[in-house]
Each structure stands twice: as structure tokens, then as C-alpha cells.
Amino acid sequence: MTIVKIDTLTKEAFPPLPLGTVRPEGWLKNVLYQQAVSISGCLDTLWPDVGESAWIGGKKEGWERAPYWLDGLVPLAYLLDDPELISKVKKWMDYIFTHQKENGWLGPIKDEAYGNKYQAYDPWPVFIFLKAALQYFEASQDSQVIPGCLRFFAYLKTALLTQPLFEWSRSRWADGFYTLAKVYNLTDEKWLLDIAALMREQGYDWRQHFEEFQYPERVAHTFGQETHVVNNAMGLKEPGLWSLASQDPKDREATEQMLKTLDQYHGQITGAFSGDEHLAGQNPSQGTELCAVVEYMYSLEVLIGIVGDVSLADRLERLAFNALPATLSADMRLHQYDQQVNQVLCKRSKDNLWVNNGQDANLFGLEPNFGCCTANLHQGWPKFAAQLWRRTEDGGLAVFTYAPCYMRVPIKGTNVAASIKTEYPFKNTLEITFTADKNIEFPLHLRIPSWCEHARIHDNHGLDERGDPGTLKKITCAVEAGKEKTIHITLTPKLELPRRYHKSVGVIKGPLIYALKIEERWEQLDHPTELWEVYPESDWNFGLSNPEKIRQNINFYENPSDASQTPFSPNNYPVFARVLARKVSNWQLEKNAAGQIPENPVWEADAPEQTVTLIPYGCTHLRVTEFPCG
To answer: 93-102, pLDDT tens digit by residue?
Structure first.
């Protein structure tokens, strides 16, 4: 590959506001608080691989696990403005930067806890740590961070000439490049551009990977870096990121084809793609690794900042409101390694469908199957919350994703505050209230989701506009000093009944996917760490009628109980639907999972149609989401 000289790195078109500027409110704040008290804020006391990590001077794992945890703990601490968590973050940052090696290396030189599994001087875990450190710098302005980053990159400039990127750092080089780009924009140190060119030359070419895609089937035998589900989730951001250096429109545009390819061959109704832990086809009983979900979200967040594509925000919300909460227990203490779109049983069994994961892969626990997800799950919700508001090139603000929050930011020398009050995604109305120190006008860009039938934006001062689905609607926001300005947004969702695997059908309304509510029985296993199986206590093998009939008989309801404390719970779901269904006799368990969906479902003899309840996918632990369709 020929690398042209890089003259500069352009900045993001829609950069998120600095960490700590946005504060979660309502149900989102409760979710983050629950995450802080259940696992993320306490993982160093629950799990020796973090609490006794070599990154903090201990004897346990010294590779990616502690950096992964910090990458989620840092935004969580500052979003909640939690003094205890902030103090914990500072302790780790102080230790790591004050123990930086003379040659510039950050962290352990080699992980000793797992023998010779990982090479010495592996840049990959440092790339993760730099992501955490730069978020910490945004919020704290700690003076040791940027010099420490520069010393590491100075080391890397020389090291890559004799030891090119390898294994995980080669596959995941885009994460290192993103941190380098941030440091470059803060320092304007031109020599960093030489490292960017080296990274591109030595890193795996994900754009070419998808242009010449060679894995249309479930990967069953030969496992490589290029088929690993998390690598693919991380690699999605590579061409868009590289466009900051190349200025090549084809790099910016590559994401669309990459997503289409994954959807076509391995896509799931959640917006994710299968991989347990390698690409596994479209069967909804195959798994998707939790690490892939949060890394997919992060890739989309990065790409939104660069290209500002509304469809990326639609997909980000689908992941955040469906796939992410569904792989966590309602109290967020436990998680799965693999989640299934049709998940009717979570049981330890050697007879399973996994591509190459172990028998504990879909159990709920502290460390089911493998510890990477235990370390990496923490970034999902905090990074989503931190990036609800973004700057724009025209000097205004943009909202690509919606959730209750508050923020305060200077615009044109005037402090502007905004509060979003909403129960979105469970309800589709929002109120954005602005205040300002002085009279001010600025551009406001609001995402109109592609799933809208209608979108209305109005206030009490003459604003009354419609927004086209799938666009970023620009309005002028005028705020008078000392007065509140409230903009109302109504997003009217359409009912979508997509045809899926084996001619099955799914139910989607707005940002939420609906799945069959299955009663659960949890059984704890005898295991060194907490580990649970989940068994169905009600029937699951139902089929639905054709989409035309579904439209005629489905009804949606709001649950009158307050679900704001635990919005993603099978016992306290905010909304639900009821629809007619019938038992399918030729759909049974296979390999301890829902079997292949019958393309020609056989209804149970003399079985009348009955009403079943569908609840949001994110509220389920057991579920059927893609139904046989008559």
C-alpha cells in the first residue's frame, strides 16, 4: 500500500460536547446510577482482574481488562458528577501516568497473569487506555495527560519501524488513530502525522475487507481476526476516521456499504450482527457478543461526529434501546456474553449453537464464558449519554439521539442551557427548554428519525414546522435573556413488520423492537463467580399471521406504573402490545435453543388464535422476536 504524506487531520463536523457538559436526567440518570452501584463503580472490588490489575501495580491481568473498565468508568463518573467515582478515576490515572516508563510506554510491558498469551509491548491495550485518558482530560483538564500521551506516541513512532502493529492492534488500529487525532487537534504537533501514516500502512484495511467481502456464510471452522465479531464492530469506523487524513469522499461513504453487507449476511433485527464469537449468519438463535454491541455503538458515535448521517443515529438508538439492555439483568448486576434475538432458554450445555464460544455463553453472571465483556460493557450507556448534544460547523448545536438530559454550554460568548424532558423511547414527544444569559440566536439541528410517519416541531411563538423522515432539520433557535424558550417535538412512529430469517416477521414501532413476553425461572449454579441459568415458565413457540392481518389486530398500550427507576425490566415495562398468535407444533428446541424457524409453520391441531403480550426487546431476558409467519 502506498501512503501519501499527510498534511493535516481535519476535525469532526459534529463533535460531541466535552465530557461533563451533558448531564443525564430522568430514566437515563437512573440507569447510569444503577450501573454505578451495581457493577461499574464496584468492579474493582468484585473482580481481581481489575482490582488487582498489573495496571495499578497488582499481579492480575495486565492487558486490556483494566483499560476497558476505565473507558466506561471515566464517563460514568463525570456524567453522574460522583465524587467517589471521580476520586477513583483520578487514583488510577495518577498511578498510570506517574509510572510511565522512561521510553514513553504506558502500563504493563507484558501481561504476566496469562503466561505467554499476549506479546510484550502490545499497543492495543494502551489504545484503550488513551481513550479513557482523553475523556478524563476533557472533564478534568489534568495537566499530566497530554504530555503523557505525547511521550507514548513518541515511543510508538520509533517502535513501529521495527515492530509493526500485530494481532489485535493491527485489527483495531482505528482506535489508536482516533486518540492520536484528538491529541493532534489539541497540540498541533506535526510529527504525529507520521505515526498516523504508519498506522494506516500497517493496520488492517476494513474498507477493502467489505469491498471484497469473503464471509457470506456462518464461519464454522477457520477463525481469524477478520471474522471476529468485535473486530468487525470496531472496524466499521475505520474508513470514516481515515477520511480525516485522506480527505477522500469514498472513505466517508464506505460506511453505508459496510453496514449493508453485514445486514445482508449476518444482520439481526436489533441492528446488530451475529458473532459468537465469529460471524454467524442471520439465524436469530445465533448469539451476538456484548462487546460487539458496545463497540458497535461507539463506532456509530464516532462516525456520527464525522459524517453526521441520520441513519447512523437511527441504528445507534436501536442498539442502545434494544440490544444493550437486553444483554443485562434488570438490576444491571449480571450480563451475558452472548445474547440471542430468539432466546428461549439460557442453559449451560455442551450441545449448543455457538460458533466457538463455551457452554456458559448465554448465562447471566459476573464473568460468563470470558472476561472481556465483564470489562468492556461499562462504556455503552455512559458514552451514549455523554454525546446526546453536539456542536455544528455553523456555530450551533445538534441533537442526533434523544433521551432526558440537561446541558450548559457557551455559544457566541453567551452561556446557553438546555433541558430535554421526555420519556423517549417509550413515548415519542419531547420538550427542549432553553435559557440564556443574553439574547441569542443560533442554528439548532434536530434529527427526524427515518421511522417517522410525521414529525412536528413547534413552540408558542410562531414556530410550527414539519420534518422529513431521515433528515436533520435545521431551525433558528432564538432565546431571550431571562426567559424560557420551549420547543415541542412530536415524532409519530409507523408500525414496521419486516420480513426476516426464513420468512419470519418482526414487530417494530419507532425506536423499539417488540418481543414475546416469556415468564422466567432463574436458577443459580455452583460457580466461583455468580452465574445463573434462565428457564421459560410459559410457552414460547408462537407464530403470527401475515403482516396485513397483524396490522389489523395488534394494539399498543402504555403501562400506568412508573417505570422510570428500572425502565428495562420484564416486570415493569413502560409500554406493551397485544396481538393474536397461534402455537406452532413444528417449532421446538434444537441444541438448547429455539430451532430453525419453520418457513411453513404447522399450527397445532385445533389450536385457536390467542392473544399474546409483546414487550420492548430491551425489557426481556427470554424472548421470541422473529416469529414464524403464516
So the answer is: 999 999 999 9
